[in-house]
Design a protein that fits this description.
404 residues, mainly beta, 4-stranded antiparallel beta sheet
């Protein structure tokens, strides 16, 4: 029997490790006597337990499926699922592309809409995902000039709906132009680096909008004193404008400036995910940012620190999903789902968005990729069936029953 285990550390080892050292390391164990340690800080997951070598794919692990052919389940891609709603196959209805830069589901994944027009069926069932390419962090769509353009830091990708990130075109801006000024020694300094096109000043030239999540004042999720109070600075989320002083064919971008609101720079609690859209129907662009929407990890809100409590790992795109003339929100969740928030405002000019309905998850014809899970297998002596209890990120235990 073979087990594949993702990096496990003691709490002390994890606490003292640098950010780079915390990257996932795969360990292969060939016997059942492997000791696995888990603390509140150190996370691990047993990815699969496979009977015999035939279940191991040549290029690594083979995904475990439900023992229920044709089952329809929540659509999920795993941690850091970046949703990109679009008509990927040009058949007149919305499909869903999801970029997942993490393990083990790295890739640009196309979920084809199996039910058609989302105006009639706003919660369609999607076909099993097709991988278009591998991916990188911070892949985001821009809906400009009647088409979708897809960017990551410093790059644009052409023919994205068919080839993912295969066709890369570098932009004339350094992907790491932002320099953090905080002095904390721990943490990633800059985590999210979210690039989008928008005609910010209405001159028909596409400017760059960049959302930056600055960790340089925050450090890491361990800055608590003996009384349990947070002692570091806050997590920052800035929105920066790089104005196009050239043309769309030959862009020349000015130095970045922070976008203001009420005479002060916009500063969300991390992960700004800036989306410009005319939400109130008055003919100009409004801005919606990421700390408005939070899907948190269960009733205790956080399994790490204040960043996760206030942010919830949500990244999103604005799209009129149900085609009623009002901009909706398609976003990911810390639970690994991709969900729809319906705009239930009105169509009247100068009437601001009233609210969004509670999120509703999409469905797919395949098992989702869970996040932060712990697997433990067992075999029933009575039925001789193997079962796989799987506690998920909010502590709900699910059991998958294997064949007799």
């Amino acid at each position: 029997m073979l087990f594949f285990i993702v990096a496990f550390r003691s709490a002390k080892e994890w606490e003292n490790a640098t950010f780079a050292e915390r990257k996932t390391t795969f360990i292969r164990c060939t016997r059942l006597s492997c000791l696995v340690y888990r603390s509140q800080i150190a996370f691990f997951a047993v990815l699969s337990a496979c009977m015999g070598s035939s279940a191991i794919a040549a290029d690594g692990l083979e995904r475990m499926h439900y023992n229920h052919p044709g089952l329809t389940v929540d659509l999920g891609v795993g941690l850091w699922a970046w949703p990109i709603p679009c008509d990927a196959d040009a058949d007149g209805d919305y499909d869903l592309i999801v970029s997942c830069p993490d393990k083990p589901s790295n890739g640009v994944w196309l979920f084809e809409n199996a039910d058609g027009d989302t105006a009639k069926t706003p919660l369609p069932t999607f076909k099993p995902a097709v991988k278009l390419s591998s991916t990188v962090h911070y892949v985001m769509p821009s809906y400009v000039g009647g088409q979708m353009r897809v960017l990551s830091p410093g790059a644009e990708y052409t023919d994205f709906t068919r080839r993912g990130l295969t066709n890369k075109v570098n932009l004339p801006v350094d992907a790491k132009f932002y320099v953090p000024t905080g002095k904390q020694s721990k943490g990633p300094k800059v985590r999210h680096n979210q690039w989008r096109y928008v005609d910010y000043d209405g001159d028909s030239n596409l400017d760059l909008i960049v959302g930056i999540e600055d960790w340089s004042y925050y450090g890491w999720d361990d800055a608590w004193d003996a009384r349990g109070e947070w002692i570091n600075g806050r997590l920052h989320g800035f929105v920066l404008l790089l104005r196009n002083e050239g043309t769309n064919d030959a862009p020349r971008y000015a130095s970045p400036v922070k976008v203001d609101s009420a005479s002060a720079p916009i500063d969300t609690f991390g992960c700004p995910s800036p989306n410009f859209e005319d939400f109130d129907g008055d003919g100009d662009l409004d801005l919606i940012c990421g700390d408005i929407f939070r899907i948190i990890a269960g009733p205790n809100a956080s399994i790490q620190g204040p960043a996760e409590f206030k942010w919830g790992y949500t990244t999103f795109s604005v799209n009129d999903w149900d085609q009623d003339g009002l901009p909706d929100v398609i976003l990911n969740s810390i639970l690994g789902d991709v969900v729809w928030l319906k705009n239930i405002g009105t169509h009247q000019v100068d009437d601001t968005v009233k609210s969004f309905e509670p999120h509703r998850g999409f469905l797919a014809q395949e098992p989702p990729s869970s996040v932060r899970i712990i697997y433990a297998s067992s075999v029933s002596r009575q039925s001789r069936q193997s079962s796989l209890p799987i506690p998920d990120v909010v502590g709900i235990c699910k059991v998958r029953i294997g064949p007799a």
